[in-house]
Automatic annotation (TrEMBL):
<feature type="domain" description="Glutamate-ammonia ligase adenylyltransferase repeated">
    <location>
        <begin position="22"/>
        <end position="117"/>
    </location>
</feature>
<dbReference type="InterPro" id="IPR010043">
    <property type="entry name" value="UTase/UR"/>
</dbReference>
<dbReference type="InterPro" id="IPR043519">
    <property type="entry name" value="NT_sf"/>
</dbReference>
<dbReference type="Pfam" id="PF03710">
    <property type="entry name" value="GlnE"/>
</dbReference>
<keyword id="KW-0378">Hydrolase</keyword>
<dbReference type="GO" id="GO:0008882">
    <property type="term" value="F:[glutamate-ammonia-ligase] adenylyltransferase activity"/>
</dbReference>
<protein>
    <recommendedName>
        <fullName>Glutamate-ammonia ligase adenylyltransferase repeated domain-containing protein</fullName>
    </recommendedName>
</protein>
<dbReference type="GO" id="GO:0008773">
    <property type="term" value="F:[protein-PII] uridylyltransferase activity"/>
</dbReference>
<dbReference type="GO" id="GO:0016787">
    <property type="term" value="F:hydrolase activity"/>
</dbReference>
<dbReference type="InterPro" id="IPR005190">
    <property type="entry name" value="GlnE_rpt_dom"/>
</dbReference>
Length: 178
């Protein structure tokens, strides 16, 4: 299993590095090609007797790599040094995707997690807005169903204390990037 997941990361490294200054919306064809190739490979694996859980785990890894490279491209295109003084931001998988199990046609549930300093009152800072838009819009343009949240740590605690489903989702959360 580890070898298969490493091979996915290797293929992503070969295929998903964008030209300098390009953002994911400029290079949708690159991401679409990667997804199409990996989806066909997973379908072949499943039809060849691969276990459903194995296919779901690999699909989650494909999505991890896609998101990592999208986030990296957004940060690079905006000028990494420009963002060096910004508070930390993490891209987190939640729900079934957070467990590392992503079924075909499932929603990709993600959360942009910050320490609370990326909000100015109820509005996101320019950095947070650029990152969330830079990742979400290309995902939607690729036809993916994305459930997303943008939360500070205190927000996560408050939501978890109000809603059992949200609390469970946080138990299953997993760092993707950041």
């Amino acid at each position: 299993v580890a070898d298969a997941l490493n091979r996915i990361a290797d293929r992503a490294a070969e295929q998903l590095i964008l030209p300098e200054g390009k953002v994911p919306t400029d290079e949708l064809a690159t991401f679409r090609r990667f997804l199409k190739t990996e989806t066909a490979r997973l379908k072949k694996l499943h039809r060849g007797g691969g276990l459903g859980r194995e296919v779901c785990r690999e699909r989650a890894r494909v999505t991890d790599e896609l998101l990592r490279y999208m986030l990296g491209a957004v940060l690079q295109a905006e000028g990494q040094e420009k963002w060096n003084n910004e508070p930390p931001l993490a891209l987190v998988a939640t729900g079934g995707y957070g467990r590392g199990e992503l079924n075909p046609h499932s929603d990709i549930d993600i959360m942009f997690l910050h320490d609370g300093k990326l909000m100015s009152g109820s509005k996101p800072t320019a950095f947070l807005q650029a990152v969330t838009n830079g990742v979400l819009y290309p995902l939607w343009d690729l036809g993916l169903k994305v459930g997303h949240a943008v939360r500070g740590i205190k927000d996560c605690v408050a939501v978890a204390n109000e809603d059992v489903q949200s609390k469970t989702s946080l138990f299953e959360a997993r760092l993707v990037a950041g």
